[in-house]
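Weekly modeling sync, notes
Attendees: AB, CL, MP (scribe)

Item 1: holo prediction request
CL wants a bound-state model with magnesium ion before deciding which constructs to order. AB pointed out that an apo prediction alone won't tell us much about the pocket. Agreed to run with the ligand included and paste results into these notes for async review.

Input as submitted:
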Amino acid sequence: MKYIPIVMLLLLAACKTPDVVTQAVVEPRENKVEITKPKNIVLLIGDGMGLSQISAGNYDNDNQTALEGFPVVGIHKCHSSSKLVTDSAAAATSFACGVKTFNGAIGVRADSTPVQTILEELEERGFSTGLVATSTIVHATPASFIAHNEYRKNYEAIALDFLETEVDYFVGGGKKYFDRREDERDLIAELKARDYTVEDYLTDFKDCELPASGNFAYFSADKDPLPYDQGRDYLVDASKAGLSFLDNHGDQGMFLMIEGSQIDWGGHANTPSYVLTEFYEFDIVIQEVLDWAKEDGETLVIVTADHETGGLSIRETSTMDSLDIEFISTHHTATMIPVFAYGPGSDLFSGIYENTAIYDKMRQALQLD
Ligand code: MG
Ligand code: ZN
């Protein structure tokens, strides 16, 4: 009894499927190849912000995060050339330069030769460029976008590279590596001589007047800036100011890297509240950047982490109101890392890929080469 209707259905399907199938398969592929070119790229890096940090931050914040506003999600493999468990230097060099390198390496390949960063390339191509961090500005993550050194802790040498590339806007700690150096050079005076307006922690960031022309640098501390829950509050303001400063700095487009540096430090310290408060602040920055990009319409926003820190776990005894968090390590882990993308070119960021592909995808989105 059922036999005849099924045969009829099959016959019907056989007659009708050819053009339906062709259209259904071809159309999405064509759409994916056609990528709108962004004018600007904002890359947000939550240091040590693995999926469990994001999960904990989300539950701790009434079950919501700005990351839910990103339509494209991917995953990157974060291992370095020397270790399965990367450090921030090798990881940021992968994003900045598209190469796998050894732990501790800043803007150099696995064979220690320097490699041009995306910030340097875009600066050369006339883009406005910026770096904002809640670590020192010479710390591994921001340093990997502008400096070249075999050892991440050569902070004074890394500071010298800020005079090699004219990054238009930078905000972070580490003033002493610029003006209390072993070689007795005053790099702040040298920056000023190169058309930088330089401010420091003696003035609150929000009271700083950004120059109408020239470049801008702000030193938020002599060494490491404070944690967010101990009164550091410049990341949101410095990120928003960076967007409008760089947007008005030229017509070529901008590249801005913003780092929530201390999510990682909360993980190393195995202190849940440190991780959660740092994530809370970074999440506000992500929302601000996303809102700005939605208004702008020409900005590709990418949010990711370099690696996970601490092996953070949300235990079975947790509730939405009371998280029971445990760590398995005071170091980084090798867990793969989520990538969130919004805006023109964001489609490129879905799937699973090596961390070096983030560099390739940014260049592909901008249609460089
Ligand atoms: Mg970092
Ligand atoms: Zn770390």
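Recorded for review: The first strand starts at residue 40 and ends at 46.
Action items: CL to compare against the apo run; MP to circulate these notes.
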